């Protein structure tokens, strides 16, 4: 069974074709600049060279047609006919309160995705465009929507409600949704298997530390709390996002800098985080690490503040669950930065966390990095959102 995984942005489309017999990636690629001049497809068959093709892609429909053509191309293709594709799995950012699990797309699902446009105005319209383009390009094939917010839907009211007038929740659906849910769900499930924990009761904290970053707490695979909120702005310090701040700062800065709220939100989303804290050095941790190593004070403080914020969330979530069995690190920083992992865990001695420096000296592979005597199992677990989308798609469509 072969499954096509799609992740559509407003002007881009990422894809992977996965053979579910052995969960291997047959080909992957990217269409960029959809709807603007200079559209280009980059297609890479497994073990082969990347192949670039420039052609007009006024909409996602033309982009998907190019992907289909590339997949069956004589020279660069990996299948003979698109009929070999059994189903298509789509990343959809927001499912609102409609979906706590992945779902086969029908008209009501498309309506629900549309109904959540105001909750994810940059992503949901593009996700829906991708689904409709696949329906047109491959009529009759099942499409599955895998929601980034689904994992957070198991939170209880005490965790998802904000302490605001309740009517805002009723009128505008303002609540904590959480994002990166596909990653948190995948990694917490793998952590339970790898640490040999009871799948019904395991208390797991996942730290998804990439350019965007979030922490989740789950008991028996069900999310009980997560750090991103109504939008991905809340929680950890990120590459360019502030994470938690005193909300009154918005009014204060708007008044003094003569900014609109929209402009201030742009600052909080694009100019803050480690980029802001480092006084503009970079949003990329490799640059911040390098500057800190050379003695730059701002870079050093950015790293220390980032580390402290992650550690505080882990401590809070351990309290929320009355314990923690496993802590897993994933995504760009979590998978690659051994110093960051060690420094975060240095705060967690009170939980009985003990890192093994030799085991921690690793990048991007599944590994337990805590000592045998550590009271909490700490793991490095590369995330694989595409595989999770493919697995859900298979489970919902296999006859
Ligand atoms: P992601 O959003 O998961 O793709 O993560 C991207 C981020 O991972 C980059 O912005 C970098 O800050 C970080 N990253 C990647 N490689 C390294 C590394 N070797 N050391 C530290 N940070 C890294």
- The helix content is 25-40%
Bound molecules: adenosine monophosphate
Number of strands: 14
* Distance between the ends: 11 Å
Mean pLDDT: 96
Plain-language structure description:
The mean pLDDT is about 95. The chain is of the alpha/beta class. The protein is globular, with a radius of gyration of 22 Å. Helix 1 crosses helix 3 and helix 11 packs across helix 13. Adenosine monophosphate binds next to helix 10 and helix 12.
Which properties best describe this structure?
399 residues; alpha/beta; eight-stranded mixed β-sheet; 38% helix; binds adenosine monophosphate
Summary of the model, kept short:
This protein is an alpha/beta fold and 399 residues long.
Write the layout of secondary structure elements.
Blueprint: E1 2-8, E2 13-19, E3 24-32, E4 40-45, E5 51-54, H1 60-72, E6 85-92, E7 103-104, H2 107-115, H3 124-137, E8 143-147, H4 157-160, H5 166-172, H6 181-194, E9 203-209, E10 213-219, E11 222-226, H7 248-257, H8 261-270, H9 273-277, H10 285-293, H11 297-320, E12 326-330, H12 331-336, H13 338-346, H14 357-360, E13 367-368, E14 377-380, H15 385-397
Parallel strand pairs: 1-6, 6-8, 9-12, 12-14
Antiparallel strand pairs: 1-2, 2-3, 3-4, 4-5, 7-8, 9-10, 10-11, 13-14
The protein binds adenosine monophosphate.
